[in-house]
Amino acid sequence: MGERVVVLDYGFGNVRSAVRSLERVGAEVTLTADRSAAQEADGLVVPGVGAFAACMAGLRAVRGDEIVGRRLAGNRPVLGICVGMQVMFDAGVEHGERADGIGEWPGVVERLQADVVPHMGWSPVEVPEDSALFKGIADERFYFVHSYAAQTFTKGHDENAVGFFRPPKVTWADHGGRFVAAVEDGPLAATQFHPEKSGDAGAHLLENWLRSLG
Description:
The protein is built from six helices and 13 strands. It has helices spanning 15-24, 35-40, 52-61, 64-73, 83-86, 199-211, and strands at 4-8, 28-32, 43-46, 78-81, 89-94, 97-100, 105-111, 119-124, 141-146, 148-150, 169-174, 178-185, 188-191. The chain has a seven-stranded mixed β-sheet with strand order 2-1-3-4-13-12-11, sandwiched between helices. A hairpin with a 2-residue loop joins strand 5 and strand 6.
């Protein structure tokens, strides 16, 4: 496909695996924290593993939160993965400590209410109609590794939503209760699972995302 993609290198995330997976589906990938490269790329991928607060500190250190905000303001695509998705919400709470996120979406990321945590392994997802991200793969399973998730999603889905506003498409999964597995919100897309660890289904999802950059 040849789309130019930057994987944001800020010290948190399965970056090498993400780079290889994107290259395999045809992207020209650069791993960098350079602001101009991140702004100018066709697509920006924000990976993330570990603690919410630590990821946010790492992002702020390279002004990644500003990069994301500026790209979205200019309708430039961003894909968040795992904690890279979680930080798009208002805040995360871990071990009783609250940390602010980027705040693109209302809501708080909290510990899963399940007997077994972390949620680790392959799980089905509940995909909304007309999803571009999951086109052709709505019935597939994806690979999750996480203890925390957003368990509600209100942007555009409440009675106060503006009539002409197109609500985000939200994909759900279940582990001790429903949680947000993916979101498609204009130029901002994100997955709680790891597409780079999700075999052919994950590769197909990354291809779908790359097609949206054209």
